[in-house]
Amino acid sequence: MKKALIAAIVAIALIVFSVYTIYNSESSNSKTDSSISITSDKNNTSNQTIEVTPNNIKTKAIDFSLKDLNDNELSLSDLKGKKVFLNFWTTWCPPCKAEMPEIERLYQETKDSDLVIVSVEIGEPLNTVKSFIDSNKYNFKVLIDPDQSVATKYNITSIPTSYFIDKDGIIVSKHVGAMNIDQMKAYIKTLDK
Predict the structure, then answer these.
(1) What is the pLDDT of residues 9-62, one digit of tens each?
(2) Is 147 found in the same domain as 57?
(3) Rounded CA separation 38/113 (Å)
(4) Domain Thioredoxin: where (predicted)?
(5) Same structural domain for residues 169 and 79?
(6) Residue 21 has what DSSP assignment?
(7) How many folded domains does the chain comprise?
(8) Separation between Cα atoms, residue 151 and residue 135, nearest integer Å
């Protein structure tokens, strides 16, 4: 009886240790992997009624400071008291490029509200990003993350990725993949709950 009990305890301990080792191995690999995959949402049609459920992340957004296209620094903490739509993207990402006109439409509709759109471009030189934004006549706030340090803090592994942050600086939802304006608005509504 005692031998069977000891064997069972040892077996359980080995299973727990194995699961722990595998989990930590995957976590550390994902943190050190600097590659970013592209995610596309093929069901992105504007004529659908969109309802989203907040992910209930309820985590304090990690503060950061980055420069915009005019070399002005912006910190996320400067936006406390406002709702924030934080979007990570690159100029070479097709789903990101498809999403940008929708972000611009949202910006034009909400620019006088308490919503701030912060678009963080990951890993490209300023002149490349500035040329892309200027040629497309986008007006929303674009910040540059040249060394991907902020993307790493936010564990960005697929782009585009968006976070929806409430007035208290709490992340309410996260969306991976391109969105249309209706999806964006649905996520923004969850910030009022």
Answers:
(1) 666 665 655 544 444 433 333 333 333 444 444 444 444 444 555 566 789 999
(2) yes
(3) 31
(4) 55-193
(5) yes
(6) H
(7) 2
(8) 25
pTM for the model: 0.74
Instruction: Report phi then psi at 143, rounded to 5.
Output: -110, 150
User: Are residues 172 and 54 in contact, defined by beta-carbon separation less than 8 angstroms?
Assistant: yes
Handedness of CA 106, 112, 118, 124 (dihedral sign): positive
Residue labelled with tokens 């996260």: 174
Q: Which two tokens stand for residue 10?
A: 């040892």
Same domain, 61 and 152: yes
Residue for token digits 């007035």?
167
- 44 vs 49, 72, 148, CA distance in Å? 11, 34, 28
Domain span at residue 27 reads 1-33
Q: Are residues 29 and 114 in the same domain?
A: no
Claim to verify: residue 88 and residue 29 sit in the same structural domain: no
Distance of CA 148 to the CA centre of its chain: 13
Q: Which residue has the tokens 């040249």?
A: 146
- Name the one residue in this structure whose structure tokens are 């359980």: 12
> Do residues 60 and 129 both lie within one domain?
yes
